[in-house]
Amino acid sequence: MLSVTAAQERASALIDRARKAGADAADAVYVGDGSTSISVRLGKLEDVERSENEHIGLRVFVGKGSASIGSSDLADAALDELAARAVAMARAAPDDQYAGLAPEDRLARAVPENLDLVDDGEPDPVTLRAMALAAEDAARAVAGVTNSEGGGASSGRGVFALTTSHGFSGGYETTSHGLSASVIAGEGADMQRDYAWRSARHLSDLLSPEEIGTLAGERAVTRLNPGKLGSGSMPVVFDPRVSGTLIGHLLGAIAGSSIARRSSFLLGKEDEQLFDPVISIHDDPLRPRALRSRPFDGEGLPTAPRALVEGGRLTGWLMDSASARQLGKEPTGHASRGASGAPGVSASNVHMAAGTLSPAELIADIREGVLVTELIGQGVNPVTGDYSRGASGYRIVNGEIAGPVAEFTVAGNLIAMFASLVPANDLEMYRAVNAPTLRIDGMMIAGD
């Protein structure tokens, strides 16, 4: 894996080759990563994995035609062939009036601020193994846990660099650390499984192995002997483990590419009151140490914090340059880039602001409802907003958690769900998309 400086130099060299081969404009991206992961089960080492990958991608424009191509071979001869093939492909490609590099006057020019995305200390395999064993041991020590699917620990490092033919060159490095445990409680047909995990840029930001393991064990035990829910309309409360998925559906719907394709359930609703006026949702790509922080986007535009929802209303769409041109607007610094292909659209570190009620207060007046802690399947229609997913969790009776339930479906429409959504005050900021406990009244339950 190259250093950030060397990665920028390789990307710049590929741009030069593309221009010499006949490209009118081009950009090149380097993505490199390396990681070590250790998994254990029942106190014994089960797997050690080390992976290293690097890839360079080239996008070229010839007239209104464009093409993207990539390679894991970074040698000079390979770059020569890559550039020639990309230009030949672009000459044969159909015209695309919206394709092109980001506006030159919008490119990031300032020195990227320090987002503290690199942990200088990298744990060795022996340390990772000890962490995984400690997490599994803590989980297996919880009364009622009868078996284990294992514990795991990982550490990695990555480099991203982007260079364009019209003056942008930037790169940054990241580190990542992960810790998990998954165990089984009960016996035979009554067995229940659950897990806990954490991921962070810095090792010190993880929960301890003992906390991870204990949490996994306690979750599995509390799921034992699940009951059934009857069918009907009732309040549904989404635990923070799953509440962020509702924001994920919002993010997909406000992507400029979805709006341009007319494939979003929010099409034409940008001026409507979607949420209660107290609801706000924010995107912060410059939050130190966060999982999706980045100093510039996938096209070289500067990134900045932004309210996505303010006063319950959308503030606009998330756009890369292509979707912005198609919609007659300006790009918003939300272009995302993989190792190959054209840019897409994505948010960064997103959170819904916490409410004022504790989770206990949020459910206090629910006579009969359900707390969802796990969602199954992908039953969401991005065009209509119709929502239907398998779930498991806990019954709520007279304002109290009354016992585990499983094998039921929660259904509704995201427009109506957003309108009735009420957040609790238990927001935690360790995921890429963070939300507190959320209550939505009037959802349909399909159970027994």
Which term fits the overall shape? Answer: globular
Mean model confidence by pLDDT:
95
Q: How can the largest sheet be summarized? A: 6 strands, antiparallel
Termini gap: 54 Å
The count of domains is 2
Helix content: 10-25%
Q: What amount of the residues lies in strands?
A: 35-45%
Order of helices and strands: HEEEHHEEEHEHHEEEHEEEHEEEHEEE
Q: What is the radius of gyration computed over CA atoms, rounded to a whole number of angstroms?
A: 24 Å
Strand order of the largest sheet: 3-2-1-4-5-6
- How many individual helices? 9
Number of strands: 19
Content-based structural category: alpha+beta
Low-confidence stretches: none
Brief rundown of the structure:
It holds the Pfam family PmbA_TldD_2nd. This is TldD/PmbA family protein. This protein has 448 residues and is of the alpha+beta class.
